[in-house]
Amino acid sequence: MIAVQRLRSALPLAVLCAVLAGVLVAGCSADAEKTPAEEIAAPTLRYVALGDSYSAAPAVPSPKGSDGCLRSTHNYPSLVAEKLEPDTFLDVTCAGADTTDMTRPQYPEVKAQLDAVSVDTDVVTLGLGGNDFNVFFTLVRQCSFVRSENATGAPCRQAMNATGKDKLLTSIAATRGRMVGVVRQIEQSAPEARILLVGYPQIVPAKGTCPDLLPLADGDYAYGRLVNKVLTEMLAEVARATETTYVDLWSVTAGHDICAKDPWINGQLHDPKRAAPYHPFAAEQKAAAEQVLAALES
Predict the structure, then answer these.
(1) Which of 195, 197, 202, 205 has its CA 20 to 30 A from that of 220?
(2) Span 205-216, average pLDDT
(3) Side-chain half-sphere CA neighbours of 67 within 13 A
């Protein structure tokens, strides 16, 4: 549908009139030659998925490809593609990707992700931002490591504020400009594409703790929640600034954080059949796909 609308909007008025006239003539004669409408090539749909591990979804449940990107067979781009049935589907999401990997090879055998975006691209999903300046790694790894220093306090927040300016929140603010740049580059490569900026889910609970799954110090849960939320808010701001579509995963994943009774995000233990540590389960990817599809229909 998207490609058809784009094709129609691109037709000059004179051509459109000729098409309509041809259709009317053809309706009066069974022996009429091919009309201009019949000679127009059938519209095609090209979908490109860009992003990091929250879009690649390692271990949900099986990997596709062997390039080290760990994208799965049931990540949300694949689920979206099942419904859209595009003529061309390129999933170049890659675990560990940040904004710099959009324009340079992430690994020797992995091209810059933006190389997949071309002038005939119709739909682009972009899920990115959490790996810039090692924000995500710091939150789930380094902050967990310092729990032993003060299990009931907030040692991570203190460490991140050692200079008087919060390291993670400052990094997220700096990532905003990078994300705007990525969106602008997509627009340049595919001027007619529908771009959807996909946010992050709720990872850290609003209240309560679960140190066996998310080993933060008790006081650092509120800090982790803040970093998680500020990251999603930054992406929503980027979407508004670039007039692109924002796909809100924060709202739909409420009550499904790592500590929830029905978690959609895995904890610290690797589950080779369900999800990598601190990454989405299949249920979250299904919800993400539904949100993307709903956004495309709106």
Answers:
(1) 197
(2) 98
(3) 20
